[in-house]
User: What shape does this take?
Amino acid sequence: MCRDRAGSYSDGARTGAPNAVQVADRFHLWQNLGTAVEATVRLHSNCLKAAFTSSDDTASDGDSANATKTMSPIEARIRERHAASHALLAQRHGIREIARELHTGGNTVRRNARASVPEQLLTGRRQPRASQLDPYKPHLDKLWAEGHTNAIQLHAELQNLGYRGSYQIISDHLRPRRRQRIRVVPPAPPGIRRVTGWMMRHPESLADGDHQQFATVLAHCPELQALHEHVRGFAEILQTPSGQHLKDWITATRTADSPRLHTFATGLAKDWEAVLQGLSTRWNSGPVEGRVNHIKMIKRQMFGRARLPLLRKRVLLTAAANR
Assistant: This one.
């Protein structure tokens, strides 16, 4: 009698068929392990946040560093043109030939040729014009540093000090600072169910992105790393139709720091005969579970509007058609 591992199934099988050999279904063994794994991952949910918070901080630091190095389109064009000019000059091309190649004037090519580095071309370009806001910028910087970032309030504050310029001048002056304050929200760390799914699947079946994230989780949490090793060990036992290493697995699991895994191992020991039959024989509940899922599918097709008589007829008709 192939059954689930709950105590009521065991008692019912013993009462209804005392002479039958009870077999613990392999799928339910794996499902029970998954329940214990999910509970253990939930206990270490802080590891998930810590693992991806540290990596996100590193990434955000790199992004902010890159943001400070970002150049304007004009500067990028000047640097690109300077590099192209010197590359053609090194090949002994003439000024006019380079100008035709780069679609620019001869004087521009000569300036690039005289400048050994592009910074010499950028010095003194586009100096900012004098503004009505210049006398008030130190005070405006002080207010911004104190946390006053509302441009309307800052405009009113400067007007009290004698500023006669427009609100737009202040807003334009503060716009680059507002862009620096924008923080890109990193993606949320993987959830408990997702990490449990990674742990219960074969490592080779994981996608590249999932595999990298799972490796990050295991690297930041030794407890989950040990749990993963126990899961892979039990998976190998399920794939071996003998169950000879199950006792060693239970002994190793009891020494691990995982109370939920201890509970699972204790349940295996209490149901030892049925578990051993499930691991060493061909009997399983697959056909029954498949029929249950088929009945559920038929019921969903009726949108919950038909009652048991119609469901019974459809199930019998489908069974007759499959013979």
